[in-house]
Amino acid sequence: MQGWEDVRAEVLRRIRARDWPPGALIPGEEALATEFGVARATVNRALTALAEAGVVERKKRAGTRVSELPVRRARLEIPVIRLDVLSRGLAYGFKLLADRMVPAPVPVAARLGLPEHAPMRYLETLHLAGGRPFVLETRWLNPAVLVGEQPDFSAVSANEWLVTHVSLVSGDIAFTAEAAAAREAEVMGVASGTPLLVAERTTYGTSGPVTLVRLAHAPGHRVQMTF
Description:
Blueprint: H1 4-16, H2 29-36, H3 40-52, E1 56-59, E2 63-66, H4 81-87, E3 92-103, H5 106-112, E4 119-129, E5 132-141, H6 158-165, E6 168-179, H7 182-188, E7 195-205, E8 208-217
Antiparallel strand pairs: 1-2, 3-4, 4-5, 5-8, 6-7, 7-8
Helix pairs in contact: 1-3, 2-3
């Protein structure tokens, strides 16, 4: 065995082979660590990953059991908008329309679990595909994630910088169809009230909330996800 991925693969193989059938209690971390010749922490990480995937169930002082009804959980990766545009065979560009520190509105602070009117960095970015509006991104960014880093979001978009520089541990996303507000209509060059596909996402890192972002897509946008 080399690392936790190898331990995970072997445990999963045994489960699929019914060496450990649904509901079965599998050996403890110490026993598996001895068998595989790895540290107990390595086994713990492998079993934690399997629990997050719904393959096993872990309970304190009750051990680890194979799930009776395994649940496959979708894992959504945050896309880099630049790469999305390029994959469509179109030239990419973006314009930073706003970048300022302001007190967070109460609904934003509440969504992210931050103090009321906490100072946040507000960013507005228009992403372009083939020279035409593609996505209008409005973002509230927790400045705490920028400690030691002061990125120039006019040179690299906040979307791309965060994906490549900040480790995320959880979040949520919602998709809605909404009528273009006056600002969105103006920036995206559509009539006010035009239906837009909107994605709103909150993300959290190891040290707390990272960002709340709203992505308003140009008419005709299609989202495809794999899991």
